[in-house]
Design goal:
The chain is α/β, with parallel strands linked by helices. The chain has an 8-stranded mixed beta sheet with strand order 3-4-6-5-7-8-9-10, sandwiched between helices. A two-stranded antiparallel sheet has the order 1-2. Helix 9 links the parallel strand 9 and strand 10. The longest helix is centred in the last third of the chain and has 21 residues. It is globular.
Length: 309
């Protein structure tokens, strides 16, 4: 899963500083902040493969969708019938995420869709009231009755769009997430959404406890029983995500599922001890170590998708 320079645009380390003492955040102290440089953080289409589309009953849910290339689809009998559902971090849709989606579409011959669950109102607008803001984006109405946009309803809208507008096989949709997005996909799996597998980078599962007062281990156990999961975690992510003793890591790796295609990529949590939270989605890849470990994590995630899709 090697990437070109275009995949990881270069930017000045002074524009991508570490967040040493965030006032409120789902990310641990010392995590990478928002992508601040236009080439990384801006939401523009530029040279990307996909398009931005408004979907849902009110046409108020924006998605970025990339279609598989013809030369890839012709070589894969499942191409065009499968999809990867991407759950972004709290900074929403931006160029680096678009590049990731494009690469996944090329490598897997799949439709790839990333979703703006926050409708443009991202973490950048809430530096001091993060948990008040994030609690208004519950998974379902049970977590926050009367909330305007439960995550589950947006998931339903995207799945309906993929199956009805693009003929995607509903039994062959995988999930991939970053930070907040890993919480969302894990919660979805726990609640019975039938993704073929789930891949997560630097998970912020703590949202389940801090924002919604539900035990994160219980959620993870429920999700892992239903869906093969693979998480890449950083050195400053919570210990419960780290093998061999973390409770979430144990739940993921001990889950029993029908064997994948080769048996070489089992569910598990892999720690990148030198990295800090956010390195895949927001890390400064002008640093060789960050670029290396971001590429390794993405390659491992891609291999897991190929194993289980």
């Amino acid at each position: 899963f090697q990437h070109s320079v275009e995949y990881y645009p270069s930017y000045d380390v002074n524009d991508m500083k570490l967040e040493n003492n965030p006032p409120q955040s789902c990310c641990p102290k010392g995590s990478w902040e928002s992508p601040l440089v236009a080439s990384v953080g801006a939401k523009s289409l530029g040279s990307v493969m996909g398009n931005l589309v408004m979907i849902g009953s009110k046409k108020d849910l924006e998605i970025y969708i990339t279609k598989p290339l013809e030369d890839v689809t012709s070589a894969n009998e499942n191409s065009g019938k499968q999809a990867i559902f991407v759950f972004p971090d709290v900074y929403g849709l931006q160029n680096r995420l678009f590049a990731t989606c494009d690469k996944l579409a090329k490598d897997h011959g799949a439709y790839v869709v990333a979703v703006d669950f926050f409708r443009g109102d991202t973490m950048d607008n809430h530096p001091t009231d993060f948990f008040d803001w994030i609690s208004k984006h519950p998974f379902d109405e049970m977590q926050n009755p009367g909330g305007p946009h439960p995550v589950s309803k947006d998931i339903d809208s995207v799945l309906e769009y993929l199956t009805q507008s693009h003929g995607i096989d509903s039994s062959n949709i995988a999930a991939l997430g970053f930070c907040w997005g890993v919480w969302a996909l894990t919660k979805a799996c726990a609640m019975g959404y039938k993704f073929t597998c789930g891949v997560g980078f630097h998970p912020s599962l703590v949202i389940e406890e801090v924002a919604f007062k539900v035990d994160v281990v219980d959620m993870s156990i429920a999700a892992a029983k239903k869906t093969p999961l693979f998480f890449c975690v950083s050195g400053n992510d919570p210990d419960n995500l780290k093998s061999p003793s973390g409770q979430v890591a144990k739940a993921v790796s001990s889950s029993v599922h029908k064997r994948g295609k080769t048996g070489n990529h089992p569910p598990k949590c892999v720690e990148f001890s030198e990295m800090v939270h956010g390195w895949v989605a927001r890390g400064d890849i002008s640093s060789e170590n960050v670029k290396r470990d971001a590429q390794i994590a993405l390659r491992m995630g891609s291999d897991f998708l190929k194993e289980w899709m």
